[in-house]
Amino acid sequence: MKRLAAYAWAAPTTMIGLAMVAVTLLTRGRVRCVDGVLEAHGGFATFFLNRLTPIHAAAMTLGHVVIGQNRACLDATRAHERVHVRQCERWGPLFLPAYGLASLALWLRGRPAYRDNPFERQAYKESD
User: Fold this and answer.
1) Do residues 10 and 62 lie in contact, with contact meaning Cβ atoms separated by under 8 Å?
2) Angstrom distance (rounded) from CA 46 to CA 69
3) What's the pLDDT tens digit per position in 47-67?
4) Cα 122 from chain centroid?
5) Which uninterrupted H or E stretch holds 121?
6) In this structure, is the dihedral angle defined by the CA atoms of residues 15, 31, 66 and 46, taken in order, positive or negative?
């Protein structure tokens, strides 16, 4: 029951991830399920991460979906991205706004918006 509740609470963010999966599949990307998380790479996922993220991320978590540049990136970042999955389960629909506001507050204070983001700091700490 607890697991189902975690999936339901993260569902709004996961829905965004599922839209990314659909477009990735339509653009010849690949998808697989690893430990209850959909992982997508190639196609639109690669384009999005290379061209539409400010840090050209290797991977990104959207609820119970992780998109990656390629399979090697997904393998290399799995522990880090699973911390973000747990954060999505904890924060639910508030995760993306909270993450974005934390980055914005850091950027406005002249600090690194990605590396100093508390969500990223936790993910790097717990995945080391």
Assistant:
1) no
2) 4
3) 999 999 988 999 999 999 999
4) 14
5) helix 118-127
6) negative
Residue 4's SS3 state is: helix
Determine the Cα–Cα distance for residues 10 and 6; give it in Å rounded to an integer.
Answer: 6
Contact 27, 7 (CB under 8 A): no
Whole-angstrom Cα distance, residue 45 to residue 12? 19
Q: State residue 72's pLDDT score.
A: 98
Q: Please name the residues in contact with 50: beta carbons below 8 A apart, sequence gap of 6 or more.
A: 56, 69
71-91 and 95-108 helices cross at what angle (nearest 10)? 100
Q: Rounded to 5 degrees, what angle do the CA atoms 37, 30, 24 make?
A: 90
- What's the chain's average pLDDT? 97
